[in-house]
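Why should sequence recovery work at all? Because a backbone constrains its sequence more than one might expect. Tight turns favour small or flexible residues, buried strands favour hydrophobic ones, and helices have their own preferences. The token representation captures these environments compactly. In the example below, the structure is given first.
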């Protein structure tokens, strides 16, 4: 049965208009993006196929064009559109956090970092440089590693902090394993960075670990 034959209250677009986007399931939101299904399957059915194939919305975002094309009905056009939507979301969140006190907007910082880091296949270490009012000066991907580890060099972060005349920093890196738990190495490098930056009077405000939809804050976990 086509979506147009469904009761109006069950159609994703009508449901969104009446109740708002938050009321929709992942499959319903994805169906609105897909717009149409394929022979024998509605857009919602096709969306469910994608979620089963890749496990989650994050899994869909992380899929390559070749992987996406294995799902019948998903071609290059849909893949390109999906990547464009993802990048627009990243940029919109980046614009929001650039003009705010980041300590007063912790969820937006988390949301941005998840969009930026959650789907990467290797570890990436990001530094957010802040001014004295905790407003964002710059975000830089400073180090890239392997599936399980990244080499981080305090000297390079100190140099960039001086370059931006930063008053404080936040760190973030991803765990491609999907486990949002700090390792002993994570704890040690955070303390090393804190000591190195203290020498130039730059505070470390937090260190986030991003793993899929999960985040860990060193401050909230009592590790910083």
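From this structural description, the recovered sequence reads:
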């Amino acid at each position: 049965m086509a979506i147009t034959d469904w009761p109006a209250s069950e159609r994703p677009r009508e449901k969104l208009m009446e109740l708002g986007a938050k009321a929709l399931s992942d499959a319903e939101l994805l169906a609105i993006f897909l717009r149409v299904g394929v022979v024998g399957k509605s857009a919602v059915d096709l969306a469910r196929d994608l979620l089963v194939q890749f496990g989650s919305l994050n899994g869909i975002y992380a899929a390559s064009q070749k992987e996406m094309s294995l799902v019948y009905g998903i071609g290059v056009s849909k893949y390109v559109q999906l990547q464009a939507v993802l990048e627009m979301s990243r940029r919109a969140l980046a614009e929001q956090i650039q003009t705010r006190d980041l300590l007063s907007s912790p969820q937006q910082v988390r949301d941005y970092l998840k969009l930026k880091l959650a789907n990467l296949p290797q570890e990436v270490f990001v530094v957010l440089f802040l001014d004295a009012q905790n407003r964002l000066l710059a975000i830089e991907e400073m180090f890239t590693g392997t599936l399980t580890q990244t080499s981080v060099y305090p000297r390079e972060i100190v140099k960039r902090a001086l370059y931006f005349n930063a008053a404080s920093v936040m760190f973030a890196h991803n765990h491609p394993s999907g486990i949002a738990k700090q390792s002993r190495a994570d704890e040690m490098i955070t303390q090393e960075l804190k000591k190195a930056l203290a020498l130039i009077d730059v505070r470390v405000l937090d260190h986030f670990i991003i793993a899929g939809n999960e985040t860990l804050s060193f401050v909230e976990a009592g590790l910083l």
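A few observations help interpret the result. The beta strands are 124-130, 136-144, 168-174, 203-211, 214-217.
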